[in-house]
Amino acid sequence: MSRFVDMTNFNLFQGVDNTALDLSTCGKSKGCYTKPNECTSNCDVAVTWIKDGSNGFKFEMSSKDDYVALGFSTDADMVNII
């Protein structure tokens, strides 16, 4: 089975000040992953996503470090990477 994720709407915010990422609607109108957990500002890492059209998502990522990445897999072990 083939799966498609539209990654054309992708924003990356880098640097210590990640206030450009709106985390106020996490769990309400968009999904969020943050470190530390439930961080609302100046997070070490933050990823948000919302449904964008019938088969796409809009992602925003932020990190205090120089590197941030996101991976997708069809299993919990990241073996079947899509």
In short:
With 82 residues, this protein is an all-beta fold.
**Average of the residue pLDDT scores:** 75
Sequence of secondary-structure elements: EEEE
Uncertain stretches = none
SS element count, helices: 0
Summarize the biggest pleated sheet. Answer: 4 strands, mixed
Shape: globular
For the secondary structure, the number of strands is 4
* Rounded radius of gyration (Å): 13 Å
How are the strands of the biggest sheet laid out side by side?
1-4-3-2
Spatial separation of the terminal alpha carbons: 11 Å
What level of helicity do the residues show?
under 10%
Classify the beta-strand content into a percent band: 25-35%
Structural class of the helices, strands and pairings? mainly beta
